[in-house]
Amino acid sequence: MTAALAYQTLAEAQKNLHQRVFSARALVQAFQERITAYQSLNAFITECPEHALQAADVADARFAKGEARALEGIPLAIKDIFCTKGVRTTAGSNMLKGFVPPYESTVTQKLLDAGAIFLGKTNMDEFAMGSSNSTSAFGCAVSPWKRTSDGKSLVPGGSSGGSAAATAAHLCAGAMGTDTGGSIRQPAAFCGITGIKPTYGRCSRFGVIALASSLDQAGPMTKTVQDAAILLEIISGYDPQDSTSACVEVPHFEAEIGASIKGLRVGIPKEYQVEGMSMELRQLWDTGAQWLKDAGAEIVSVSLPSTPYALPAYYIINPAEASSNFARYDGVRFSHRTSKAEDLWDLYERSRAEGFGKEVKRRIFIGTYVLSAGYFEAYYVKARKVQALIRQEFLEAFKNVDVLLAPTTPTGAFAQDEEPKDPVTMYLNDVLTVTVNLAGLPAISVPAGLTQEKTPLGLQLIAPHFREDFLFRTGSVLESCARFPFWKEG
Fold it and tell me: 366-391: per-residue pLDDT in tens?
């Protein structure tokens, strides 16, 4: 019974709760049992068992009174980068290991207002810097998927690796992640789930611990495209507390599920055929295009010439903004404070040296360098010019097509002991995702196939600004054609 409850999609759980097939308490307990059973995945940094059961009892009381809200009783996992009032929020770092926010992020507040229940805070790369969850100060999260040939454990991707692993292993009905350069879509592809990065400004960033403020965006990670549509509609909307929040209408995204794509023009960007892409993904890409063509879409080849320059531009802009954002962690206010300081400057230096991990320090150094006098024009300004070119090329492409189709990642997930030691090699995992963040566009990753080792592969759809409706409509077609086998025990 426990497994049966946990294996449901969010939409199924939503329906069954409203029909009183089972109680919210029973559903929460089913997920809590699985969280305990799968501690080896290290998907959570902080669990909230008592709070979740109390919230479940409140939900059951509201069901009994006929006062249920949209997400009443739905148990979710929250990436540990969202500030949650009264619940520890670490961003996967020793710098914030004792931080308990006195306020709630806008995204999580919207979920709570809709009746959702939080099971806990999920593991992540430190301050969202990473593509494998290996930079977390709390240890690496692990994907529930294993290779058939050697049974090796796989990385869940990053930075939202804990949310991806928890969703894939049925430890929650869905999860929240953030995407700065692919951190929702890449782990979704690695773990065989759906993940959507909305248009920049679609969801408020208030209360989301910042990495790169011009690139960060919150979004849902779910088992299905329909589930992602349900959650995105809840968390979207204008927020006066976020100056980058867009005042645009929030459509009924769920209505797009199963809608016809006849006449839709799907672009295939030729520059996304990057060196090192596996043959399995190339074949899946062709198959995905054929699925959409068979459903009535028109397949069109498009060119985005500046794509090869996206990754170097991203890894200038991202560290530059991180360097600026992370100046706040000085050991004086709310971050880690060393116990060995001799004076104020020593306090700053020791606190930051002790609190930050290697990847965070690396990006702070890079960011400070590219913003320094003599290098600002040579690096940062040029990177911003490349970003403007990329954005313009997307705008031109979308004059002729409605969506773009590409693989989410160049390869499937790798084993934990095969992780590249060279940080630049690791950065190449983001080669197919960073362009979307640089342009502020929405994109969704849908699980679409398996490798010969029976591990997940994802296809990515990219749409014009604020056209997430295209993503859900087209993504649901890919999903129905792929019939992806979700992970289950055995």
Answer: 999 999 998 999 999 999 999 999 99
Separation CA 117–CA 112 (nearest Å):
7
Domains in the chain (CATH in brackets) are 2-260 (3.90.1300.10)
Q: Which tokens in the block code for residue 437?
A: 């963040």
Query: Of 79, 110, 121, 197, which residue is the catalytic one?
Result: 79
98-106 LR contacts (CB < 8 Å, sep 24+): 98/336, 99/334, 99/335, 101/207, 103/207, 104/207, 105/204, 105/206, 105/207, 105/208, 106/203, 106/204, 106/205, 106/206, 106/207, 106/239, 106/241, 106/242
Q: Collapse the DSSP code of 446 into the 3-class scheme (helix H, G, I; strand E, B; otherwise coil) and give the result.
A: strand
The one catalytic residue in 132, 134, 159, 445 is 159
Q: Is 382 a catalytic residue?
A: no
What span, in angstroms and rounded, lies between the C-alpha atoms of 52 and 32? 9
Q: Is 358 a catalytic residue?
A: no
**Predicted local distance difference test score (pLDDT) of residue 160:** 98
- Please answer whether residues 414 and 453 qualify as being in contact, where contact means their C-beta atoms are separated by less than 8 angstroms: no
Confidence (pLDDT) at 54: 98
User: Which residue of the set 183, 236, 245, 335 is catalytic?
Assistant: 183
Q: What is the largest CA-CA distance in the chain?
A: 70
Residue 340 is a catalytic residue: no
Q: What is the mean pLDDT of the chain?
A: 96
- Burial (CB count within 10 angstroms: exposed 0-12, middle 13-18, buried 19+), residue 373: exposed
This prediction has a pTM of 0.97
Bridge pairing between strands 175-178 and 75-79: parallel
pLDDT in tens, 73-126: 999 999 999 999 999 999 999 999 999 999 999 999 999 999 999 999 999 999
